[in-house]
Design brief:
Strand order of the largest sheet: 2-1-3
Shape: elongated
Order of helices and strands: EEHHHE
Number of strands: 3
Distance between the termini: 10 Å
């Protein structure tokens, strides 16, 4: 199984993580991305209360893309 290193310090430890793919590793991070997105929404003074679901979905998608882009295979 391949090992991946996280090179983006915004997304935690750089330790080697074993996963079948970058995408499958990002999937394991989904609960954490959700927590971070909810925190971001609560901190955003301009967030529209009616669009919480959309805001969180977009934030999770952005984090997932950035996380995958920051993974290096060993």
């Amino acid at each position: 199984m391949p090992s991946f290193y996280n090179t983006n310090s915004n997304y935690g430890a750089c330790s080697p993580f074993e996963a079948t793919s970058k995408e499958s590793l990002a999937e394991t991070m989904h609960p954490t991305f959700r927590l971070w997105a909810e925190d971001r929404w609560e901190e955003d003074q301009d967030a529209d209360l009616d669009s919480k679901g959309d805001y969180i979905a977009q934030a999770i998608d952005q984090m997932r893309r950035e996380f995958i882009a920051g993974l290096a295979e060993r």
